[in-house]
Amino acid sequence: MSEKDKIKTLFVKKPLKLDCGQTISDFPLAYETYGKLNNKKDNAILVFHALTGDQFASGTNPITKKDGWWNYALGPGKAIDTDKYFVIAANVIGGCMGSFGPSNINPETKKPYGTNFPVITINDMVNAQYNLLEYFKIEKLFSVVGGSMGGMQVLQFVSNFPNKAHTAIPIACTASHSAQNIALNELGRQSIMADSNWHDGFYEKQNKQPDKGLAVARMAAHITYLSKAGLQEKFGRKLQERDDLKFSFDADFQIESYLRYQGSVFVDRFDANSYLYITRAMDYFDLTEKFGGNLSKAFEKSDTKFFIISFTSDWLYPTSENREIVIALNAIGKNVGFVEITSDKGHDSFLLDVPDFLNTVRNFLNKSYEKI
Amino acid sequence: MKKEFYNIAKLVTTNAKILDVGCGNGELMKYINENISKDIRGIELSKSNVQKCVEKGLTVIEGDAEKDLKQFPDNSFDFVILSQTLQAFLDPENVLNELLRIGKKAIVSIPNFGHWKVRLHLLLKGTMPVTENLPNEWYNTPNLHMCTIKDFENYCKQRNIKINLKNLKFQNLFSELGIFILEK
Q: What is the interface pTM, i.e. ipTM, of the complex?
C-alpha cells in the first residue's frame, strides 16, 4: 500500500449544496488526527489549514516527507498540546491531498475534473468539514483554530455553527478579502494560465503540469508571506555562491536563488488547478456580504469565546483587518481577546517559531479549557 | 495587590459587567474575576501586559483607550474602571466622556497633586514633586495633565457629572489618591 493509499478519508454521503449552485455527494474528505479524544469528548480542536497546507499539520508529512506545516505550534507538549487535546485537521475540498478536488477522477469522463470542477468557497470548505464532528460524534468542539485562509474558515465556522465551538482562534486573517489580496491571487492564477502546459486546466493529457507557471505563482506569493525587514535581514544583497555579479540573468542574489528553490519544490507537492480553485475561494470570501455589510451580525448567535491574533509585520492580512473582527465582536458584547504579536517574519509568522505567539495560543487554550 | 485595587474592587457589584481600561498585567481584573464578577474584561496598550493577562486566563484586548473605546456601544458595561492613567492621556476629557458613554458607572482614580507632601515639596524644595504615587521626574513623566482632587471635583461639577462619594473619605490635603465613582 502506498503512502497515498493510507491517507485517512471520510466519504461524505450526505449531499452538500455548494455556493455555486451545484450539489456534491459521496465525496472524499481526507483528514488526520493527533492526540486522543477523551471520554467526555470535550477536548477536540478542529484545525484549518491555509492555502497550500493539508491535513498533515504535525509530525512528518508521510507524502512529502517534510515536517508538518504547523510543527512549531502543534504536537505533544506544544502550544496546541496533543497530549491534552484531540486535534482534527482536514484537507480542504478543492485541495490535492486526498479531499475532493480538481485532480480527482470524474466518474463520467474517467478523467480528472480539471476546470470542470465546481468553484468552491470558504463556506463550502467549512460545511464539508462539519461532517467530521458527526463522524467523531463530537457535540461541541473545544476550539477551532487556523491562520490565514485557516482563520477565514474559523470565522465562517463560528458564523455557520454558532454553538459548536467553545473557543475560536482566528490568526492573521480577514473577514473580507481585500482588493490587494485578490490582485495578488490573480497574479498567481494568470501565471499558471500563461504556462503553455496548462491547457485550460486539462493538462493531464500531456502528462505535464504547468510547473513553470505554478512555480512563478508560488514565488510571487512567497514574497507576500515575508516582510521587507525580514527579507533584508536574511538576504540583503548577498550573492549566491559567487564573489561578483555575473552580468547575466542567473540567480546572482541569494534571494533569487531562494525564491527559485521555493518555486521548484512547491510544484512537486501541489496541483496547479487546486491553486486556482483555492485562491478563488479566498477571493470570494466576504463574511459581511450575507449580512448587509455588518460583520457583527455574522456572529450574533454565537456563544464562542474568541481570541484574535495578528502580527506587526504582516502586510497581507494586516492588524487593521484583524482588528475589524475584534471591533465587530465588541460591538455586540461578545467575549473577545486580541493581541498583535511583534515579529519581523511577516504573514508567515504564524507558521514559525515565534515564542510570544506560541505562548499566547498555549495560555489561551489551556486557561479556557479549565473553564469549560 | 495594591491597596488602591482593594478599594476599587469594593466598589463594583457582584456579577456586574465590567471593563478595566488600561488593565496592566491584570492584577485587579484577576481579583475581581475570582471574587466578585466573572464578567470582566480589559483593554491594555502594552503587548507584554496583554500576554500576562492571557497567562492569567483573563479576557483582554490590546488597544489604546484614546482610540479604541469607540467600538463599545453605549452603556455596554455596568462599571468601567480607569485606574491612575487619566492624567497620562493626550485628551483626558475625551476619555472621560467615552468612559461615561460605555459605562453606566465609571470608577476613576487619580494621583492627587494637591496632597500636602506634593505641596510641601514644591514649596520647600522648589522642584517638581516626586512621591510614591508620582515617582517620575519632570522630563520623563507620562503625566501630561496632573490635577488635584479639588480640580477634578470642579471639573465634574461643570460638566454635570455626578460624583458618588458614599464609600469614600478623601480630602484634597490628605489623600495621595482620589477614587471616584462617576455617573452621567
A: 0.92
